[in-house]
Design brief:
With 469 residues, the protein is α+β, with helices and mostly antiparallel strands. The protein folds into two domains: 248 residues, FAD/NAD(P)-binding domain (3-Layer(bba) Sandwich), CATH 3.50.50; 185 residues, no CATH class. 33% of the residues lie in helices and 25% in strands. It contains 13 helices and 22 strands. An eight-stranded mixed sheet has the order 5-13-14-17-12-20-18-19. β1, α1 and β2 form a beta-alpha-beta unit.
Length: 469
Amino acid sequence: MSDVYDVIVVGAGPAGLFGTLKLAEAGVRVALVDKGKPLEERKCPLKTGEARVCAHCNSCSLMCGWGGAGAFSDGKLTLTPHFGGNLENYVGKERLLSLLDEADSIWKEYGADSAPLYEPDPEFASKVIKKARTAGLQVIPARIRHIGTDRTIEVLRNIYYKLRDKVHILMNTEVKRIMVEDGRVKGVELASGEMLNSKYVLLAPGREGAPWMERTSKELGLSVDSLPVDVGVRVEIPAELAEELTEQFYEVKAIYNSPTFDDQVRTFCMCPHGEVVTEFQSDGGVVTVNGHSYRDKKTDNTNFAILVSTEFTEPFHDPNGYGVHIARLANMLGGTVLVQRLGDLKLGRRSTRSRIERGLVKPTLAEAEPGDLSFALPYRHLKDILEMLEALESIIPHVNDKYTLLYGIEVKFYSLKLSLNERLETSVKGLYAAGDGAGVTRGVIQASASGLVSARSIMEDIHKMNSRI
């Protein structure tokens, strides 16, 4: 195929894929570039038994490749506009609702149609909200479609079959820089030195690509804003403790202002009957923690993140670097992510393997190293997390017990927000951005929707250009 395209899409995660689907449907010549592996080759050595601890792959199969980090997420589509990113700030609430419905319909078209939709009974939700308020928690009900990690892979495979004959797909291919001339994008230069020319470029590198996006922004002189840094731990408890809530809410979205420091603390990515997993951030060289849950495979535990959002002011300009630093401390202590019983943390002692084995919660991430999270997390973050656990006791009984497991560090690398207009175009003509890596979104469904927005904007530009010829 020609190395001259109408559009080059950087990143094959939800934003890049949904943008590419729309562009391909319109007959636009597209090259889709991603540094990760094809879907069938995305195999974590830790999961296959080839490694006992994270192998520090140059391209983490859980983070990069076809489907992006969304491929091995638990396939949670949050259809309520209050969550999942900042897209509403660009397109408005009414258009966002329409986009979420459209993105949901596309997920269903490619195989998610059988995924259950969770929306709590209003009377039950009202009781939970009232209980939470007594502890200072704000619980916000949401409509959630849960595809499951296993079924999400099937959907992404179907999208690949749709695109493989319509788009030039370049996997295992890293973009070195964006080529710009006289204020207009001209294409991309690959790490191999090869140049791909195009009139338009859509940047959708995802969470893993956030540091790359930051460097690219500086090289091009793009305006950026710093978003709050999200750092915390993943909590693991017996599934029955949260069963009453998860059967209706599936994911409990709770926000808390900590009493001591007045920081915003929130729950994130609840995985009922799921498992805790590691992720390798190759750009920062750190192992972090996350959670998955499947449709067809259940564990005895439920896990979720507690994240502390910290918004720094001048002269600080490196939120991603701050998150990497905290995660690196944990890795330094244990060689991988740490796990600690809540009771041990409160007693000021490290957890040992024997203490964890005697506990009531059997860790789903057996490779995690027992240790002491207080040596890695700043006191402020630690205090916020402990206060949040105490507050959560109001709606999840015994979550604050000594046997609860805490894994660290969990960091969300989307602390950079590009300055974009309502069409998701940058100050460079023809250069668009979408998804988590650009700070536009913070989840699968809004990332998908942002890809649709940018694709339509590009098609409008192409139509105007063609009408002038």
